[in-house]
Amino acid sequence: MKGMAMLPDDTTCALCSESIWIRLGPESGAESDEDANMLPEPSASASRRVVAEDDDEQVVPDDVILHDCPAGHHFHWQCFLSHTEPETYCPACHVAVIPPDDDDARLLATIRNEGGQEDDFDLRPVLIEERLFATAPQLRTHAALCSACFTGDEASVLDILSNPSLSPPETTHLLNTPDTDKHWTPLFYAAVAGHAGIVAFLLNNGADPNHRDRFEHVPAQYASEEGHAEVLDLLRGARSVY
Length: 242
Known about the structure:
The protein is an alpha+beta fold. It folds into two domains: 21-132, no CATH class; 137-239, Serine Threonine Protein Phosphatase 5, Tetratricopeptide repeat, CATH 1.25.40. Helix content is 36%, strand content 11%. The chain contains ten helices and six strands. The chain has helices at residues 33-36, 77-82, 124-135, 137-151, 154-161, 168-175, 186-193, 196-204, 219-225, 229-239, and strands at 21-24, 58-61, 63-66, 74-75, 108-113, 116-122. The termini are far apart.
C-alpha cells in the first residue's frame, strides 16, 4: 500500500491481535512533560494501527504489559479496560496475576503511550472504576465534570451541563453530588483550582456553596487557603443568599 512503512516491531495486542504501535496525526501532538507523568488514555485520534511515512505523523505505542503475566502479553489500553476477566487474572492466558482473595494486592503493569512510560502503574483501581462506570454511566459524567472543573476546561463544563438529556433537576443533582473520595462536588474542584469563571457558572446553575466535604470544609475554605480572592468573593456572596 502506498505510503506504508515497516512497523517498529511486530508486537500485537493479545486481545485484538492488532499492532501496539499507532500513528498520531499532527493535531494530536505529544503530551507535555507535566502530562507525561499522568499517562492518560491514548488519544481518540490514535485509532489507526498502521504507520505512514509522513513527517507530520508521530509513531507511539499503546501498550500495557502486566508484570506478573507469565506469558508477557501486551494489550492496548482500551482493550485491557474492556475485558471481562476478573481484575485478578490476565485476560489473555487466564492465569491469576495477583491473589484473588487479597483486596489490597496491586495489579502492577508497565504502561507506554504518547504520554511516556511508567513501570509500576497499579491497574486494579482503574479496572474497578471502569466497571463501576459501566454499571452506572452517570458516575463517568460526574467524574468528567469534576475533572473539567479542576483543569479549567470551560468548554467541557458547558458541554456536560448543557446536555439536552439532562433535566433541570438532574443537572442540579449532578452539580451537588459528592465524589466518593473527599466528598467534593464539582464546585470544590473549581474553587481549589481558582477558576472563577467556572465557579460563577456552577453557582448560577444551582451548585450549593454550603456543601461540606468529609473534613467538614466548604469550597470557600479551600479558595481562601489557595489565595483565590475572586473565587472567594463569589463563594462568600453565594453563601449569604443560600
